[in-house]
From TrEMBL:
Entry-linked CDD domains: Pseudoazurin
Record note on cofactor: Binds 1 copper ion per subunit.
Chief localization: periplasm
Positions of the Blue (type 1) copper domain: 25-111
SUPFAM superfamilies attached to this UniProt entry: Cupredoxins
Descriptive protein name: Pseudoazurin
Listed InterPro entries: Amicyanin/Pseudoazurin (IPR002386), BlueCu_1 (IPR000923), Copper_blue_Plastocyanin (IPR001235), Cupredoxin (IPR008972), Pseudoazurin (IPR012745)
Binding site for Cu cation: H59, C97, H100, M105
Any single GO CC term annotated in Swiss-Prot or TrEMBL for this entry: periplasmic space
Amino acid sequence: MRFMAIVAAACLLTSPVAAEVHEVKMLTRGDAGAMVYEPAYLEIAPGDTVQFIAAQGGHNAASIDGFVPSGYAGFKGQINEEIRITLDQPGFYGVKCSPHFAMGMVMLIRVGETDVARPELPADLPQRAKARFDDILEDLGQ
């Protein structure tokens, strides 16, 4: 019995922590209004995956140029494409729906620990996208 407990403990100590998959729905209408991602904000660990689900048609998920950690190449899914993105680099990632960016269809992902509590929003964001990011950050108390 004692031997089995030691073996079990050794296995637990050597097992890697499994990364999580977080689902985000792309919606024409959701609880927060029109043209939204649900949830609009995620806090995840480095190595976790975000799966964007085309719950309603006509949407995609793409990183916002200038609103990702330095050196990150970005991503862009096709319209109605369900994509999985694994994020390893700590920092803030702004995400947009390309056809509905001007309508404020954006979300924010925080990966791991960051140097700043509140990300600096790009100056060239469409007005509604900026307003939605401001709402997300306000809901977080930032």
